[in-house]
Amino acid sequence: MPDAADLLAIAVEIVRDAGETARRMRVEGVSGVATKSTDTDVVTAADRAVERQVVDALRVRRPEDAVLGEEYGASGTHGRVRWILDPIDGTVNYLYDLPQYAVSLAAEVDGRVVAGVVRNPATGAEWTATLGGGAFHGGTRLHGSPQTELAQALVGTGFGYDPARRVHQAGVLHGLLGHVRDIRRFGSAALDLCAAAGGQLDAYYEKGLNPWDHAAGGLVATEAGLVVAGLGGAPPGLDMVVAAPPALFKPLHDRLAELDAAGGP
Ligand code: IPD
Ligand code: CA
């Protein structure tokens, strides 16, 4: 069984170098902007360069592993280890020079995420976790928020790029806003999950996340003691990711289920 700590050490080294590429390319000016699923879903030359850099570095360090990246999809032979990469999570923030974007890299062994790192190259902040080994930020172990009342909870979320999905998400938000302290939409799911792990958000939910958005951040949140799941006992995935401390999970889950947050387009 590949050692989670060894995989994390490789991930951290690679993500630091790749994050520096993203930061430098942002300073030099964003280029190569194109759209993907909708007119608001952007990709830049930096997304592609970072993904290529990480995949190339993994090929050198771990030639036998598979990789799934947001921009170039799946590559490599599928052995026991698969890496899941979001080269820039928060691409719209990156485009607008808002310092809230991240490189996110997770390692799965036999389909289970065992190591993950999320790094914000704009601030140098970095979160890491290994399965069973805890979640850390700047050498400090994370334990999530102590909040127990949904009515007092600051809840992070995000919206997809498809207008029809956004309309549904707005309806959910409308039904939730009166039941929580407030809502935050920072623009990077990976960083939102890390914020929930560190108690800077009391909880987080979002519909429509892909594996690269939540693989590493989800492990950071889980290892900080949060429950990370979908609705109705489903695993976290495309339909819904909820991350909340145990005391907040059920009230938030039940409210989201009532609002059919995992439904719609
Ligand atoms: C997006 C961000 C955003 C979330 C979207 C994601 P991208 O990822 O994580 O916060 O709301 O659902 O698609 O496109 O910036 O990599
Ligand atoms: Ca993303």
From TrEMBL:
Its cofactor is Mg(2+). Gene3D superfamilies: 3.40.190.80, Fructose-1,6-Bisphosphatase, subunit A, domain 1. Its EC number is 3.1.3.25. It catalyses: a myo-inositol phosphate + H2O = myo-inositol + phosphate. It comes from Phytohabitans maris. Coiled coil: none annotated. It is an enzyme of class 3 (hydrolase). Keywords: Hydrolase, Magnesium, Metal-binding. One of its GO terms (molecular function) is hydrolase activity. This is Inositol-1-monophosphatase.
